[in-house]
Amino acid sequence: MTIPSTTRAAVTTSPGVVEVQELPIPSIDTDGGLLEVEAAGICGSDVKGLKKELPARVMGHENVGRVVALGEIARGRWGLTEGDRILIEEYLPCGHCRFCRSAEFRYCVTTDPTVSKTPMRYGTTGLEVGKGLWGGFSEYMYLHPNTVFHHVPEDASAVELSLALPIANGYEWAYEAAGAAPGKVVVIFGPGQQGLGGVIAASMAGASVVVVGLPRDRVRLDAAMTLGATRALVAGEDDIRAVVDGLTDGRGADAVVDCAAGDENTLPLAVDLLTKQGNLVVAARSPQKEIAFPMSLAAQKALHIKGMRGHSFGAVEWAIRLIGSKRAPLEVMTSVRASLSEVKEAIDGTGGAGPVPVIHAVVLPRGAGEKAGNP
Ligand SMILES: [Zn+2]
Ligand SMILES: [Zn+2]
User: Fold this and answer.
1) Is the pLDDT of residue 21 over 70?
2) How far is ligand 2, taken at its centre, from the CA of residue 38, in Å?
3) Ligand 2: centre distance to CA 134 (Å)
């Protein structure tokens, strides 16, 4: 394969400013590689990320594409060849700390932006660090030696594959952590990408799923019903407690998954809705450091409180298998496709600005339908 000497990339130069630049493609080290990006998904963290005071960088952390160059050590270590189609996790963990050694590499300090000031992480690390091309909003991306990748089916759509990480989060939070199973009732606050991923996983596991959104979430709530939810409710309009009581003979929900706020608007309600020994899964993090929480009632109910971040390797594998199986009508989530010059609009749209309600936007660095595989 001929590798060009430059790539077009959407560079976030300062908070809220994204410009398309022609960047040099770096030399490929013997333990690294190069990915031709097919699709790069946008999630809620990009809305916050775009506003951050960080060095210039190429964002884009939900990436799928084809390997076009490999160093010899990488070829042997990864078992890949040029032309292989892979999906990349955002984490660039160190590979040897206790989190990495226990497969919980998402918590590795090296890749954790809440701990490290200079995290190694696709979509976050700056242009001035190492090979520079650390994000998927670019025709080509560098593959670091510690890349965490997954094989993906050839016939799966690149646009749908770009949903794998948010769906994996939903699987881990609303199925594994919530304990979804036949006969269980799982309430999910927040019908965003991850909440909807949770709807798919928990409903496939046999649970009844109640999704709660805001008045502006109507399109997302409709999507939740298409994806398997039992009820979709609007906070402040519908009587959530009455619906949960109706589904549980008044005993309360088996799990509440907060993908919405993690604050005083959601957590006291979650504690109220839960049954004794229920699972409170807190996946949303409030920007407030301290919040009032009804701990006495939570203890009285003997609740299990679990904080969640990101996804395990196995959860991503599940999401890829789901996408490859075509069992879920994922087209209700993939409404917006953007080119490199439309990255800022697509991120703003994901945050709720703009005329079209966005559930999941995806950037196709070569434009829709061209060399972008099978979008
Ligand atoms: Zn994300
Ligand atoms: Zn580590």
Assistant:
1) yes
2) 28
3) 18
Average pLDDT rounded to a whole number, residues 193-216:
97
Is residue 34 within 8 A of residue 3, CB to CB? The reply is yes
Indicate which ligand has the atom closest to the C-alpha of 97: 2
What pLDDT score was predicted for residue 368?
Answer: 59
Label residue 332 by pLDDT band (50, 70, 90): very high
Ligand closest in space to the Cα of 163: 1
Nearest ligand to residue 124 Cα: 1
Q: Which ligand is nearest to the CA of 43?
A: 1
Residues that place a CB less than 5 A from ion ligand 1:
43, 45
The confidence score (pLDDT) of residue 114 equals 86
SS in 3 state form for the chain?
CCCCCEEEEEEEEECCEEEEEEEECCCCCCCCEEEEEEEEEECHHHHHHHCCCCCCEECCCEEEEEEEEECHHHHHHHCCCCCCEEEECCECCCCCCHHHHCCCHHHCHHHCCCCCCCCCECCCCCCCCCCCCCCCCECEEEECCCCCEEECCCCCCHHHHCCHHHHHHHHHHHHHHCCCCCCCEEEEECCCHHHHHHHHHHHHCCCEEEEEECHHHHHHHHHHHHCCCCEEEECCCCCHHHHHHHHHCCCCEEEEEECCCCCCCCHHHHHHHEEEEEEEEECCCCCCCCCCCCHHHHHHCCCEEEECCCCCHHHHHHHHHHHHHCCCCHHHCCCEEECHHHHHHHHHHHCCCCCCCCCCEEECCCCCCCCCCCC
295/129 Cα distance (integer angstroms)? 44
Mean pLDDT of 60-84: 97
Mean pLDDT of 309-334: 95
